[in-house]
TrEMBL record:
Belongs to the mitochondrial carrier (TC 2.A.29) family. InterPro entries: MCP_dom_sf, MCP_transmembrane, SLC25A3/Pic2/Mir1-like. Its main location: mitochondrion. It is found in: Mitochondrion inner membrane. One of its GO terms (cellular component) is mitochondrial inner membrane. This is Probable phosphate transport protein mir1. PROSITE patterns: SOLCAR (PS50920). GO terms for biological process: mitochondrial phosphate ion transmembrane transport. Solcar repeats lie at residues 42-127, 140-224, 240-325. One of its GO terms (molecular function) is phosphate transmembrane transporter activity. It comes from Ceraceosorus bombacis.
Length: 339
């Protein structure tokens, strides 16, 4: 009998040899801790990137609509039979490629503007809340939305204006230059900094009310629509949340388009041609407004409703999805705080 048998090992107090368990043979490592949620500058950089991407995608995709809308505003005597006919006129006169005129400055300009707009909105909203307190901010959240978005848009327009001026020249004057870089260089060479910012007043007049209406209406509409579901936002499916973002964005886009339409028309007009020597921007705007009248100021409204409603809906849906992908969902929601 072998002295190495289990019986003798037991009598000697030794434990029988055991086969290694699965866990011993293949040790399980401790789970890796989840990445810490971003905060501070890192968080707002993610907000800014999400805003930049959503604005560049939506504005770039709607370049053909913007081309037709701009032509209706600048040449109402030619393009006066609606948006669909306007598309046909542009294609018949200049070819299908003309519908993508200004795509470069549109995508680049709104990439920059989107970063300042969405990132700035989140930053200024948090700053205001820190100053007045969460309770006061929640009770007056409509005012918080308006002020935060207005400040954010002011800085966004500083970045947008040169590229918007270039886009309008390319769209309104076929043959002005060969693309973004050519147009940018030509304005810089012939008119200097003034040429890029001659439309800064009108762009503020257009974009600040536009953005204030856009964010305020979106926030209120989204809060109300989520309330109708009877569930907290966190319990809603991703698909339903995307649908709610789209619906709220359409309402916000319609409101923003109507409020900013007169300024949008004036912006297209003032960037089309150079001003007379010594003529100020304000006097040019007043003269243009008198010449156009109410009907002229609202030219291209149908095309702009389609464009702004679509792109605003897309922006909020894309922005929300990118924030989730970047783990940047830590922005303060005053609607949630109110419940």
């Amino acid at each position: 009998m072998s002295f190495n048998s289990p019986i003798f090992q037991h009598l000697n107090g030794a434990q029988p040899a055991r086969k290694p368990t699965v866990n011993q043979a293949f040790p399980i490592r401790a789970p890796v801790e989840a990445a810490a949620a971003p905060s501070g500058a890192d968080l707002y950089a993610r907000f800014a990137f999400a805003g930049a991407v959503c604005c560049a995608i939506t504005h770039g995709a709607l370049t053909p609509v913007d081309v037709v809308k701009t032509r209706i505003q600048l040449e109402p005597e030619v393009y006066n039979k609606g948006m669909i006919t306007g598309f046909r006129q542009v294609v018949a006169k200049e070819g299908a490629g003309a519908l993508l005129t200004g795509f470069g400055p549109t995508a680049a300009g709104y990439f920059l503007q989107g970063a300042f707009k969405f990132g700035g909105y989140e930053f200024w909203k948090k700053t205001i809340i820190d100053q007045v307190g969460l309770e006061t901010a929640t009770a007056n959240r409509g005012a918080v939305y308006l002020v935060a978005s207005g400040i954010a848009e002011f800085f966004a327009d500083i970045a947008l204006c040169p590229l918007e001026a270039t886009r309008i020249r390319l769209v309104s004057q076929p043959g002005f230059a060969n693309g973004l870089l050519g147009g940018f260089a030509k304005i810089a060479r012939e008119e200097g900094l003034k040429g890029f910012y001659s439309g800064f007043g009108p762009i503020l007049f257009k974009q600040v009310p536009y953005t204030m209406a856009k964010f305020a209406v979106y926030e209120v509409a989204f809060e109300k629509i989520v309330g109708l579901t009877g569930k907290p936002k966190e319990q809603l499916s991703p698909g339903l949340l995307t649908s709610l973002n789209l619906g709220s964005g359409v309402l916000a886009g319609f409101a923003a388009a109507f409020i900013s339409q007169p300024a949008d028309t004036l912006l297209s007009k003032i960037n089309k041609t150079k001003g007379a020597p010594g003529e100020g921007v304000t006097s040019r705007l007043i003269g243009m407004a008198k010449q156009l009248g109410v009907r002229g100021l609202f030219g291209g409204m149908t095309a702009r409703f389609v464009m702004i409603g679509t792109l605003t809906a897309g922006q909020f849906a894309i922005y929300s999805d990118i924030k989730k992908a970047l783990n940047a969902t830590q922005g303060i929601e005053l609607a949630k705080a109110a419940k």
